TrEMBL record:
Membrane-spanning parts: none
InterPro entries xref list: FAD-linked_oxidoreductase-like (IPR029041), HCY_dom (IPR003726), HCY_dom_sf (IPR036589), Mehydrof_redctse-like (IPR003171)
Amino acids binding Zn(2+): 219, 283-284
Protein name: Bifunctional homocysteine S-methyltransferase/methylenetetrahydrofolate reductase
Domain of life the protein comes from: Bacteria
Amino acid sequence: MSTRYWKFPAGYATIYWNHILIRKVGTSMPLDPSRPLLFDGAFGTYYYSLTGDEAPCELANLTSPDTVLRIHREYLAAGARAVKTNTFAANPVSLPDPEQLSRVIEAGWSLAERAAKETGARVFADIGGNNAETAPGDYLAVAERFLELGAREFLFETLASFDEVLPALGLIRERVPGATVFVSFAVSQDGYSRRGHYCRVLLEAAENCPLVDAAGFNCACGPSHMANLLRNLGPCRKPLIAMPNSGYPSSINGRVLFEDNAGYFAQKLAALYEAGAEILGGCCGTTPRHITLAAEALAAAARPAGTGLPGPSVPGPGAAAPGGGRPGARRKTIAVELDPPFDYDCSFILSASAELRRGGVDFITVTDSPLSRTRADSLMTAAKIRREAGIEVLPHISCRDKNHIALRAGLLGAAFEGISHVLVVTGDPPTQTESRGRDGVFHLSSFDLISYIHSMNTEVFAKNPFVVGGALNVNAVNFPRELERAKKKLSLGASALFTQPIFSDAAVENFLTARRELDCRLFAGILPVAGYKNALFLINEVSGIEIPPQVVEALRDKTLEEAAKISIAYSAGIARRVYDAADGFYIMTPLRKIAIVHGLIEEIRREET
């Protein structure tokens, strides 16, 4: 197996995509609109129901080829006109041994070809979703192996995003201009993928790509919810794919099982066809019996003339976000960061918020369990501050330990409370990672979460959209790379950036560079340290903090009052250096020392005219 595509250089997707755009794309095998193309059902769940084997079913291509062949034949006998190779999870992440992976793919292709020849069915090289950082290169390598075996029809399924498959699609078109390429996304009942992309945005990206012949959805949803999503898509320019799960699983005696609902599934699949889907099949929980009854229902289904699915179109992630652009006002916006309590006593954060409001602060930013130490929920704390202290809030939302369901639920609750600003952060990693099961769960990246909220702004929060802020690390060693990340955040829907604490000359210069290159509201992060011990802790135990040695040494052996004066003077000096370039200041409260924050705010306000 060739390995020249395994290491995937940054930016290669864009270069390859631009190259392919100028190539003539061949014509794929046409679809008959009067007769849907029916795929098989779920290989993995059906294989498990037959064998009880909990190992990846793809390995059965090598260890139990007769079983694999039997399953293919059962689906084809049930009425499927297209069969997928048993290679959904055959990728370098699930099967890291390149030689084993190559053999699994080859055996999977051979077995599907053998079964299909008996009925004249079409064989699609099945390439499943991959959420690893190496996904673009992985897709490319797997596609190359299938091309070596002679594959001419491809299904990329259960995808959470689109850009990552572009290099593989380009390779397929370059090698076989007339290849057939289907792309299918996995979205939940609310229409979002696990990477936070809305279904309409994903489908539009695939439809606008000349490398794709058909696009749609599979997995994650049951047939009823998928039908609801299709009704709201709007007109589709390419053949539409719909391959829902049989329903939703149940946990019985510790085993996750799908109930036998083949008759219901068949009727829903026919409804999906009548709603506009031309390519149908089943995902998790669907068996040969589901496909048998689906084939019968589809044969009897009537396709309405002029089937168009009118509905709203969601703008892509590059659309303008609310709150963008620099204000013309001279007065700087000031946001002050407070940490929620470790317990249920919120008296300090409420009194401090009220005091800061009286001192002219515009926003209270509320952290989300910094350093991975559990604190009160940032959104609930922010809502209480807004209600009882009477000041606007900017809660942090971290990606750590929340899937898209929890994140969506939190945003809906925040909207109930009138919160309209959020700061998206990745979240600090767990402090204990050596023990199994203690790694943090990062379901979405900060990029994904920004895009997710941006999509919700157009779908759910259209009347009162969230203003989304992101983080900018001015202390990054490779600051040009950090700037590229910042630009990506802005393109996905962020309209303001808040920097890490600025202490050094290099951080000041990076901030000024960011001002010249970024078109957004830019807030300068200032952290006035509380004293010598606090400074030592920050530079030694908190990632990304760099305090000049002379500042740390100046705090040694000073009283709290003396240290406060030194800290305020130094922080005010930093603020003056970036004042003209900043839209506002993001002041982090050191160890509950509100007096230090007040002192710094007074210095900043003196600069205003």
